[in-house]
Structures are given as C-alpha cells and as structure tokens.
Specification:
Largest sheet: 6 strands, mixed
Radius of gyration: 15 Å
Strand content: 35-45%
Number of strands: 6
Shape: globular
CATH topology: Archaeosine Trna-guanine Transglycosylase, Chain: A, domain 4
CATH architecture: Roll
CATH class: Mainly Beta
C-alpha cells in the first residue's frame, strides 16, 4: 500500500525526514480516518508540503495505533518519542492541541529518500485531506496533456 502525507510547509519537515532527524510521522485525530487501520510495516509513504510537489518517500518500519481514552494516555508516547516526531517546544509545553484527540498513530520511518518530484490530483479525496491511502501512488499522480 502507498500513502501520501501532506505536511505543513512552515515546519520544514521534509528536510528533517531526509536527514534522519524526524523518524516518526505522527497523526492525531478526533475520528478514525486514514491511515488508521490502513498502514502497516513495509508500506511506502510519500511526502509533500501543502501546495508543493511530492519530493520525498520513506518505508514504514513499524506502526503504533492507540485509542486515547483521555489526553493523558498520549503523554508516555510524547515523552518517549517527541524528538523523533520533531514536536516543537510549544507543542510539548502546551498540550491544548491534544485536548479532543482520541486516536494516535505513530508511523516509524526508514530509508527516507528524495523522489523525482511529481504533482498529485486530490480530486475526490477532499481539499482539506492531509493523508491519502491508495494501492499505488500512480493513481494520484497528476497527468497533464501537453
């Protein structure tokens, strides 16, 4: 399975993934949405900054999914993996962002690489969608007639 993760360009996470500083992609949700239940070791995640081309991919080494009964359930994971997730000091100091989250997914990455840049077509997935799971990334590649 292939996955597309769309990142906030202000965080400059693509370089951190490539350098090995960021080895865990985390997703925190109110509801069970992709990639919950769709991602396993051996899958490939393609990354792009919002509004940009896909430029990086990595292999999934391990996945931890956890239903959070309370925000406190996430604290051991935040303490253990904050550096690998590359959480900002602000995010760790003020956990208000975690208040209504009920699902945590930690995606451990290996073998990050640059990929030949390509654009995607998110039509049918929702304009605000930040994660898409597909059998083959080719299904998302935007094709333009010249």
């Amino acid at each position: 399975m292939h996955h597309l993760a769309i990142l906030n360009p202000k965080r400059k996470l693509l370089d951190k993934i490539l350098s090995g500083e960021k080895t865990i992609e985390s997703r925190w949700y109110v509801h069970k949405i992709a990639p919950w239940g769709k991602i396993t070791a051996g899958d490939v995640v393609y990354f792009k900054d919002a509004g940009k081309h896909v430029t990086v991919h990595a292999t999934v080494h391990k996945v931890i999914q956890k239903k959070l009964q309370t925000p406190a359930d996430a604290l051991p994971f935040l303490k253990q993996f904050a550096k690998q997730i590359q959480l900002s000091e602000d995010a760790l100091a003020n956990l208000e962002w975690l208040h209504k989250k009920r699902y945590m997914i930690l995606i451990f990455l290996s073998k990050p690489q640059k990929t030949q840049p390509f654009s995607i077509n998110k039509q049918g997935y929702g304009s605000a969608c930040a994660w898409i799971s597909v059998p083959d990334i080719e299904l998302l590649k935007e094709t333009r007639k010249k």
